[in-house]
Structure formats: structure tokens, C-alpha cells
Amino acid sequence: MAPASPPPHPDSPASPARLVVLVSGSGTNLQALLDAIADEGAAGYGAEIVAVGADRADIAGLGRAERAGLPTFVCRVKDYADRAAWDRALAEATARYAPDLVISAGFMKIVGAEFLARFGGRTVNTHPALLPSFPGAHGVRDALAYGAKVTGCTVHFVDDGVDTGPIIAQGVVEIRDEDDESALHERIKEVERTLLVEVVGRLARHGYRIEGRKVRIS
């Protein structure tokens, strides 16, 4: 993957990095980003959310965005002839807001070639396991079933694989004997929200480059 162009430098308070956030459900990661930006200001945090997109209508994540006064858009797979058409529509809707970074905050759809052609190296995702272990939709369940003693969360860039993009940062969560999937996932989510806010802010404030599988934050 070609090196990513760094976002605007934070020395210019009028030009924080522009974020488009994609959601599929409750939007707790979106809320964590909104809270961080509200606490520090866009100039201090280094970024501002300019729009929120979703693959479903009438979800809590869109409600959070609307209460924050943010524009929203919805691209439902079923509204398009095929997955490629949906991917193209999602890319076009996202591009309207000229984002420096796209944040997949619990977005439960895999983006395709058109989206990656526009936003590859600029799309950040979270996963509830320590990649490359336990990729896919059931990372928490799979770690428990395997008998792992620790798991956690990964913040990574999206590529054309499933949870295979370059890793930016990881957080570790101990697996307790009494854990079931729900309890473990809730503890992972707490770490994930904190890590995502930290990582996005660092990328936005300092810029970065991708060298093979290494992400270098300036």
C-alpha cells in the first residue's frame, strides 16, 4: 500500500484533520470521539468530525450524530443492485466530506475496491482481539473458545483483507476464569474506546506514514 498523506498539521488551529465516522449500531466509539473533541476542542485534539455515515437507518449511532449537529448519510446494501454498487455509493457519500481520515467505529460491513481506492491508508478500524490472532466477526468468542489467557483490542488500517491491515496500536485485556463472551466483550470495549481516541488524535496531530506493515507516527 502506498504511504498515506499526513493530515493537516495541528499548528494550524483553523485546519484540524477532517474525520468521517462510519457506524452500524449504538455508536459508543463515536461518542468517545465526540467527547474527546468537546473536551479538548478540535484544535487541541487535532481533528473534527465532519459527518457520520451508516449502513442502517434509525440506529443509536445516527442519533448521537444528529444530537451533535453533524450531517449524516445512510448507504444500505439492500438499496443497491450488488455489493460493488453499494461500495461505490459509500465511497462517493464519504468523499463529499473530503475526509483526511475515515474511522470505522463499529461499522459492520467490509468495504471494497472502490472505497479502498479512495481511502486506503486512511481508514482506521478497531477489532476486539489481538490481531493477527482471532480475526473476523467472532474475535471475542474465538479467544474464549481457544483458551487464551489474554486478549484485547487492535486499532489498525483497513486493507482488502479481513482484519489484515497494518496495526497501529493494541491494548491487552486479561481473560478471567468466570468470563463469558458478554462480560469479556464489555471489558474489551472499555479499552477499545480509550485506545481509539488516543490513536486517532495522534494520527491527526502528528501525521503518519505506512512502511510495509509498520505504521510510523511522526
What does this structure look like?
- With 218 residues, this protein is α/β, with parallel strands linked by helices.
- The protein contains six helices and nine strands.
- The protein is 37% helix and 23% strand.
- The model is unreliable at 1-14 (pLDDT under 50).
- The protein is globular, with a radius of gyration of 17 Å.
- Strands 3-2-1-4-5-6-7 form a seven-stranded mixed beta sheet, with helices on both faces. A two-stranded antiparallel ribbon has the order 8-9.
- Helix 3 (83-95) packs parallel to helix 4.
- It comes from Streptomyces celluloflavus.
- Catalyzes the transfer of a formyl group from 10-formyltetrahydrofolate to 5-phospho-ribosyl-glycinamide (GAR), producing 5-phospho-ribosyl-N-formylglycinamide (FGAR) and tetrahydrofolate.
- One of its GO terms (molecular function) is phosphoribosylglycinamide formyltransferase activity.
- It catalyses: N(1)-(5-phospho-beta-D-ribosyl)glycinamide + (6R)-10-formyltetrahydrofolate = N(2)-formyl-N(1)-(5-phospho-beta-D-ribosyl)glycinamide + (6S)-5,6,7,8-tetrahydrofolate + H(+).
- InterPro entries: Formyl_transf_N (IPR002376), Formyl_transf_N_sf (IPR036477), GART (IPR004607), GART_AS (IPR001555).
Q: Could you write a compact summary of the structure shown?
A:
The chain has 218 residues and is α/β, with parallel strands linked by helices.
- How large is the count of helical segments? 6
Instruction: Provide the low-confidence segments as ranges.
Output: 1-14
Query: What gross morphology would you assign?
Result: globular
Helix percent reads: 25-40%
Over the alpha carbons, how many angstroms does the gyration radius reach? 17 Å
Protein name: Phosphoribosylglycinamide formyltransferase
Site (Raises pKa of active site His): 163
Binding site for (6R)-10-formyltetrahydrofolate: 83, 108-111, 125
Pathway: Purine metabolism; IMP biosynthesis via de novo pathway; N(2)-formyl-N(1)-(5-phospho-D-ribosyl)glycinamide from N(1)-(5-phospho-D-ribosyl)glycinamide (10-formyl THF route): step 1/1
